[in-house]
Design brief:
Blueprint (H helix, E strand, L loop, with lengths): L4 H4 L5 H28 L6 E5 L2 E4 H15 L7 E3 L3 E3 L5 E9 L1 H5 L6 E8 L2 E9 L4 E6 L3 E5 L12 E2 L15 E5 L9 H7 L4 E3 L4 H10 L4 E4 L4 H14 L2 E4 L22 E4 L4 H10 L4
Parallel strand pairs: 3-5, 11-12, 11-13
Antiparallel strand pairs: 1-2, 3-4, 5-6, 6-7, 7-8, 8-9, 9-10, 13-15, 14-15
Helix pairs in contact: 2-3, 5-8, 6-7
């Protein structure tokens, strides 16, 4: 399949990346609303299998990933893709799709509407355009490198689409956590004793939220609902799209050692199954978060 010159050749411009992100937004919205309707009507296969003792995959994870990749490849930007369920496919290329069909599969399978559909286009190992569907309010988030982060609020039914608004994390705030600040945290249940990520969050003396979706955590940072999202056990497909959106909204993204998260490491696609413990937060909170992480013994 030949790349589409009309889209691919313009990815080196901010306007071209933003146009691409808007196209991705339409694709994730279509699939996300379909999943939300199936879940609401209970008209979906409840059977699921285990990928790991604490991780599941449903038939709809696999089907939705296939549908997403089919729609994205029709844009003829690239055939190369990394999907959570199907792994890496396609000939080597500068660009790669990174897809998480249902982030929060356990929530979805149990009827909780805290899940997301996530798509990012990577230039080598740097996300340059992305879109996410957030099932909580049927909101659509999208972003382009250098083009900002945007949210289009969801509407129930077939009402008129709302205009997208640009996301800006409020610049002025204290460099310390307030007791009313909310911090999302996700960790591995396999951790013996107190999970270090949870211990770090508790030490901040604020409100802790555990959503069961890495994407939902970082979209909450991008929207300003949460001051930070601490993710101890995540893969590249969990955070590629939400990371770009949060970053373009003004958040700081970094590994637990304080090094910048984006772009991902040069060998990110060679070792795509490894965990990428990382944080998204208001920039003024990075110092105190790093201190809490180190005090919790996370290395």
């Amino acid at each position: 399949m030949k790349p589409d010159v009309a889209i691919r050749s313009r990815l080196n411009t901010r306007a071209g990346r933003l146009r691409a992100a808007r196209l991705f937004a339409g694709i994730v919205e279509f699939e996300g609303r379909r999943l939300a309707q199936l879940q609401h009507s209970r008209n979906f296969a409840a059977a699921f299998g285990r990928k790991a003792p604490d991780d599941i995959v449903t038939e709809l994870d696999i089907l939705t990933e296939k549908r997403l990749l089919r729609a994205l490849r029709k844009l003829q930007i690239t055939d190369r893709a990394l999907g959570e369920e199907s792994g890496l496919s396609g000939a080597p290329d500068r660009y790669t799709w990174v897809v998480d069909p249902i982030d929060g599969s356990t929530n979805f399978a149990h009827g909780m509407n805290v899940f997301a559909v996530s798509v990012a286009l990577m230039d080598h190992t740097n996300p340059i355009a992305a879109a996410c569907f957030d099932a909580r309010d049927l909101d659509i988030y999208y972003a382009a490198a250098g083009g900002g982060a945007w949210r289009r609020r969801g509407t129930a039914g077939a009402g008129p689409a709302r205009a997208a608004s640009k996301l800006h994390i409020i610049a002025s705030r204290s460099a310390a956590f307030d007791r009313l600040d909310m911090v999302g945290v996700q960790w591995s249940p396999q951790t013996a004793g107190m999970p270090p990520a949870l211990a770090a969050a508790i030490s901040l003396n604020c409100k802790i939220r555990v959503l069961g979706s890495a994407v939902a955590h970082w979209l909450s940072v991008a929207s300003g609902a949460c001051a930070a999202g601490i993710l101890q056990r995540v893969k590249i497909w969990d955070i590629a799209a939400a990371g770009l959106i949060a970053s373009e909204a003004g958040a700081a993204l970094f590994h637990f050692d304080g090094k910048p998260l984006l772009p991902f490491a040069d060998d990110a696609f060679d070792h795509f199954s490894r965990d990428l413990p990382s944080v998204s937060c208001h920039p003024l909170l990075k110092r105190v978060l790093l201190h809490s992480i180190r005090e919790a013994g996370i290395r």
